[in-house]
């Protein structure tokens, strides 16, 4: 089959690799019909190289048609149309029972000290072959895949794999009071979908911050008050002006460690990129190569007693945070990968009953998988209006 493989920093290629097969009774194989490119893939493209091996297949936002099922999978049949959540979870352990599928005790990566396995997401998360491919082996298929009806186009359901549950969790974790205010930092797919969900669930004031003009316009077009962080002198003051001088009740950080405007972080990342892998891994994990500017901004702008919800992905342990400010402002902070299965029952009705979240018009680019390398580059540089790219294998 053809698959998109990682080869090195900013080097991904479509190659022919062996077809996957059923390895465990709980596996299924799906023929991928649509598969998303995500801001999280940009971390692999850029800074997480030390945790990848040349040839690793990327991608964690797939949907398709079931082609084979293992003997332990009763819930799926060949021919079913399914969306595959980006995290791999068993559905019957302590963590899954508590709605923490990202911490699944069956697929946890204990040797790495990390949570549940993810598709296409480094040795830290199990080095499971990803979904930017013609075929995908789905472990724990008795629980993970979400059956969706025939009829609507793939884009109606595709974003259940990641964007929708991630944004939904970001909004739930933000604990926005009824009619209250939320600021979303970063208006990529995750941030923009968070603004739509916050509006849908009854937030009063929704503010969006970014620096890419098309992204700001996109959010404005559905009623978000936007701030271009590259154009105002003092971002916190601009946010306070829209929130009675107090700051928003909640802030969602939908940027993560690829934030613009953290030159020291960039230097450290580049240095890590030049080191031999074992050394670089250590540096990435411990030595403060993070770029925390979006998180610092979130802590600064949220109102006293407010909540910061992080969906942006961070790594590293050594970068200092403003504990004085966090403690003094009495903040609540919640974060983590999305527990996809936990939110599916809340979201699915919104995809079947019309399209209130506007998912069908969400993607800007549909491209053949063969053009994925170019699409990665365009998406990283945010050129050509690339907002959400969907590959068609
Ligand atoms: N928690 C999860 O389960 C989960 C799932 C998917 C994605 N993510 C993470 O969410 C984040 C966003 O994903 P995405 O697909 O929307 O990515 P993206 O790269 O398309 O979007 C990030 C946006 O942030 C903006 N930005 C960068 N620096 C900024 C700054 N200093 N101030 C304001 N805006 C800034 C960029 O212009 C861009 O529009 C990534 O870190 C991704 O890894 C997390
Ligand atoms: Zn994703
Ligand atoms: Zn589990």
- Strand pairing plus helix content: what structural class? alpha/beta
Bound molecules: nicotinamide-adenine-dinucleotide, zinc ion
Multimerization status: single chain
Strand portion: 15-25%
Structure description:
Strands 3, 4, 5, 6, 7, 14 and 15 form a 7-stranded mixed beta sheet that branches. Helix 4 crosses helix 5 (189-200), helix 4 packs across helix 12 and helix 8 runs antiparallel to helix 9 (277-286). The N and C termini lie close together (10 Å). Mean pLDDT is 92; it is low at 261-267. The protein has helices at 39-46, 94-97, 155-158, 163-174, 189-200, 213-220, 235-241, 263-274, 277-286, 293-301, 323-328, 340-352, 372-381; strands spanning 2-8, 11-16, 28-37, 62-69, 81-83, 135-138, 146-147, 181-185, 205-210, 225-228, 250-253, 307-310, 332-335, 365-368, 389-392. The protein is α/β, with parallel strands linked by helices and 393 residues long. It contains 13 helices and 15 strands. Strand 9 (205-210), helix 6 (213-220) and strand 10 form a beta-alpha-beta unit. The structure holds nicotinamide-adenine-dinucleotide and zinc ion (2 copies). One zinc ion (ZN) binds at residues 38, 40, 60-61, 86, 162.
Keywords:
393 residues, 13 helices, 15 strands, binds zinc ion, seven-stranded mixed sheet, binds nicotinamide-adenine-dinucleotide, alpha/beta, globular, six-stranded parallel sheet
């Amino acid at each position: 089959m053809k698959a998109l493989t990682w080869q090195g920093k900013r080097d991904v290629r479509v190659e022919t690799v062996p077809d996957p097969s059923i390895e465990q009774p709980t596996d299924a194989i799906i023929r991928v019909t649509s598969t998303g490119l995500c801001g999280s893939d940009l971390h692999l493209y850029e800074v997480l190289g030390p945790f990848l091996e040349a040839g690793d297949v990327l991608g964690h936002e797939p949907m398709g048609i079931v082609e084979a099922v293992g003997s332990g999978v009763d819930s799926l049949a060949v021919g079913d149309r399914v969306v595959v959540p980006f995290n791999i979870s068993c559905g019957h352990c302590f963590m899954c029972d508590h709605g923490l599928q990202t911490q699944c005790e069956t697929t946890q990566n204990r040797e790495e000290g990390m949570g549940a396995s993810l598709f296409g997401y480094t040795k830290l998360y199990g080095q499971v072959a990803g979904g930017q491919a013609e075929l995908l082996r789905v472990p724990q298929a008795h629980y993970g895949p979400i059956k969706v009806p025939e009829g609507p186009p793939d884009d109606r359901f595709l974003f259940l794999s990641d964007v929708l549950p991630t944004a939904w969790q970001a909004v739930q974790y933000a604990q926005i009071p009824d009619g209250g205010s939320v600021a979303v930092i970063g208006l990529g797919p995750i941030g923009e979908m968070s603004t739509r969900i916050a509006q849908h669930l009854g937030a009063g004031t929704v503010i969006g911050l970014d620096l890419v003009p098309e992204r700001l316009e996109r959010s404005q077009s559905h009623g978000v008050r936007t701030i271009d962080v590259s154009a105002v002198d003092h971002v916190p003051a601009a946010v306070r002006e829209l929130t009675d001088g107090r700051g928003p009740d909640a802030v969602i950080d939908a940027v993560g460690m690829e934030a613009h405007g953290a030159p020291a972080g960039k230097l450290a990342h580049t240095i890590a990129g030049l080191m031999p892998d074992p050394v670089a891994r250590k540096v990435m994990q411990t030595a403060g190569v993070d770029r925390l500017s979006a998180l610092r901004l979130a802590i600064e702008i949220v109102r006293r007693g407010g909540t910061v919800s992080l969906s942006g992905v961070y790594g590293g342990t050594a970068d200092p945070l403003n504990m004085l400010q966090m403690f003094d402002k009495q903040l609540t902070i919640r974060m983590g990968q999305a527990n996809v299965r936990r939110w599916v029952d809340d979201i699915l009705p919104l995809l079947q009953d019309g399209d209130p979240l506007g998912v069908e018009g969400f993607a800007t680019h549909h491209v053949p998988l063969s053009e994925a390398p170019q699409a990665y580059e365009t998406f990283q540089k945010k050129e050509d209006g690339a907002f959400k790219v969907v590959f068609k294998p």
